[in-house]
TrEMBL record:
InterPro entries assigned to the protein according to its UniProt record, in alphabetical order: ABC_transp_permease (IPR001851)
GO molecular function term, any single one: transmembrane transporter activity
Gene: rbsC_4
Residues of the signal peptide: none
Superkingdom, taxonomy of origin: Bacteria
Major location category of this protein: membrane
Subcellular location: Cell membrane
Gene Ontology cellular component list: plasma membrane
UniProt name for this protein: Ribose import permease protein RbsC
């Protein structure tokens, strides 16, 4: 009897959490996504097919992976403009190191992946150190890192695209498991890990506290500088994973890869309900926001809309999301 009561209590608690999340902004966002999908399915019968939906998930995978780390940064009221350059740099580092790997020399390939992830973590850590301990403005720090990362990518590649990688590399972007593309699988795994880290751990609670009120968090004994340092490092790691997936998917590493990706990442995060003022956001919301952008892009493409208008509409969605966030902050104040 006690076990039955405990199960009922757990079920009620879970239901309450779901209802609270739906009321907090995820519900209307999810409803908007569903309505847009229904409208597009009527306007273009090709839209609501397995191949199209899978294609959407593959297309948003790179943005989605990078957006997980970016969500942590923005919740702490920070910003990361270096993510696009870091995606390109990590992919180029992995491609350069793995160019000589073969099925008989798998160790070299794995070392290439490990070093690419280390590069992402290192750049993210440098951003975090500058913001947390040197107290530099995140916008300026990551803007400088954006230029440095892109320049380093060009220097490593000598401005040339690298082609033809071993299977150990392309498996992350071009292969499938049980009919599901690897980019989609990697993205979903990263989102699940990010959600658990943000909602189920002490670190996640500290991230919200730092973003909500940095001074109050410090007085409460939260290591504010360490939390900020870790969030930027995490953003670097997710950007590196996104870079590996992108290069593997294209079977090439381009010096100009992911140009402007930082804007798409920030757009997905903000549309997903994460406040630029900090202290509020969710990984689930970011996932819906990223998918929403993908749905709009693919849907308008199927309808034959001029790509220039697609970009305009995407910008309008971002503007609306930022405006709603600003109005929400004013009501709270």
């Amino acid at each position: 009897m006690n076990s039955t009561t405990a199960k009922e209590t757990d079920t009620q608690a879970w239901s309450s959490r779901v209802i609270r999340q739906l009321r907090s902004g995820i519900g209307p966002l999810l409803a908007a996504l569903i309505i847009i999908c229904i409208v597009l399915s009527f306007a273009s019968p090709e839209f609501l097919t397995t191949s199209t939906l899978t294609n959407i998930m593959v297309q948003v995978s790179v943005v989605g992976i990078a957006a997980v780390g970016g969500t942590f940064v923005i919740i702490t009221s920070g910003i990361d403009l270096s993510v696009g350059s870091l995606v390109a740099l990590s992919g180029m580092v992995a491609a350069t190191l793995m160019a000589g790997s073969t099925p008989d020399n798998l160790g070299l390939g794995l070392a290439g992946l490990a070093i690419a992830l280390a590069v992402g973590a290192g750049v993210g850590a440098l951003n975090g150190f500058a913001v947390a301990w040197l107290r530099l403005v995140p916008f300026i720090v990551t803007l400088a890192m954006m230029a440095m990362g892109r320049g380093l990518t060009l220097a490593i590649s000598d401005g040339r695209t690298k082609f033809d990688f071993p299977n150990a590399f392309t498996v992350f972007g071009a292969k499938s498991i049980a009919g599901l593309p690897m980019p989609m699988i990697v993205m979903l795994v990263v989102f699940v890990i990010g959600h658990v880290l943000l909602r189920k751990t002490t670190f996640g609670h500290q991230v919200f506290a730092v973003g909500g009120n940095r001074e109050a968090a410090r007085l409460a004994g939260i290591p504010v500088q360490r939390v900020m340092f870790i969030t930027y490092t995490l953003a670097g790691v997710t950007a590196a994973i996104a870079g590996i997936v992108l290069a593997g998917r294209l079977n090439s590493a381009l010096p100009s890869a992911a140009n402007g990706l930082e804007l798409q990442v920030i757009a997905g995060i903000v549309i997903g309900g994460t406040s630029l003022a900090g202290g509020r956001g969710s990984i689930v919301g970011t996932f819906i926001g990223v998918v929403l952008i993908g749905v709009i892009n693919v849907g308008l493409s199927l309808l034959g809309v001029n790509p220039f208008w697609t970009q305009f509409i995407q910008g309008g969605v971002i503007f609306a999301a930022v405006m709603l966030d600003a109005l929400s902050q004013r009501r709270k104040n």
